[in-house]
Amino acid sequence: MTRVLSCIQPTGDVHLGNYLGALRNWVSGQHSADVFHGIVDLHALTVTQIPGVIGNNTLQLAAVLFAVGLDPDVATVFVQSHIPEHSQMGWIMECTVSFGELSRMTQFKDKSAKREAEFVSAGLFTYPALQAADILLYDANEVPVGDDQRQHIEITRDIAMRFNHRFGETFVIPEAVTPASGARVMDLLNPTSKMSKSGADDSGVIYLLDQPAIIEKKFKRAVTDSETEVVFDRERKPGVSNLLEILAAATGTNPQKAAETYTKYGELKSASAQAVIAMLEPIQLRYHELLSDRGELMRMLHKGNIRAREVASATLSRAHRAIGLLESK
Length: 329
Ligand code: TYM
Hints:
By secondary structure, this protein is mostly helical. Helix 10 crosses helix 11 (255-261). The chain is globular. The protein has helices at residues 16-29, 41-44, 54-67, 85-94, 99-103, 106-114, 122-136, 150-167, 212-220, 238-251, 255-261, 265-291, 294-323, and strands at residues 3-8, 34-39, 76-79, 142-144, 175-177. Helix 8 (150-167) links the parallel strand 4 (142-144) and strand 5 (175-177). The chain has a 3-stranded parallel beta sheet. The structure holds ligand 1. Ligand 1 is lined by residues 5-9, 17-18, 21-22, 40, 43, 131, 134-135, 143, 145-146, 148-149, 152, 183-185, 194-196. Residues 5-9, 17-18, 21-22, 40, 43, 131, 134-135, 143, 145-146, 148-149, 152, 183-185, 194-196 line the site of ligand 1.
């Protein structure tokens, strides 16, 4: 059976890009593969955290993952810091990737440039090594992600191949899987930048828990262009194309088809808003239900952690044996 792994950071609120680019596909894939999904709280430490906040964010994100439809009896949903093998394998990955390779990561270049006056942690630089550990620990064949993560999956493949070459066949070589529409949801106000939870101004970001009136307002303000024609052309018409792609992803059609239905920008904006509101409504209801029972949420996570740990510890031991570290007994 195909093994699938993908993770999300508990920083900021989950937005439409996370949902359409990743979470939705995690849910649709859970019955046809053996799936593992992690809340990667250790990755979130790469930027300075306020004491006491991250645990709560982790629990809220767990509620989101179950609310979008991950079934704890089917999918293994776990918390990264509860599985110590991630940190242990992370070190091995750091020793299998080069300084030069990490220096070429666009996310590091972007993020460190944005934070130039602030503290840039070494963890921000070595982040892809920990991500490689997340993936390789679970023998993942497929990693369903948005477009922005492709480079991190590529470096994971390189690390796995290098390790296998040095120490013998140990890791499965994973592949990135991105959705046909929604792989790169753009900011509504700045449609040449991806929708992101780390942006300073979030009025172009649709959050999964935004109320309908807020969603309508954000779509109404979406940047289009000075023309009037509704066509799908990412290069020439990034704003309109982004709306078409969101609408298509939310209604299960394709952006070219969606373009044929609308002649005015205003109609396209309100249709997109309505489609997103309808898509998010049941998720929001379920989220609030789940969050009202902390004990049950913790039980759901605990179940995932146990299964995740079984798989992760077996892979870590395999890697230790391949390297030839002295056994402890
Ligand atoms: P994170 O937490 O930033 O995002 C989680 C998922 O959401 C996708 N995504 C988007 N997709 C489409 N359009 C967007 N605007 C958009 N923004 C985010 C991301 O591609 C991702 O799939 N490094 C990862 C977390 C991670 C991970 C892993 C992922 C750690 N270990 C192992 C896969 C496998 C990250 O920061 O994702």
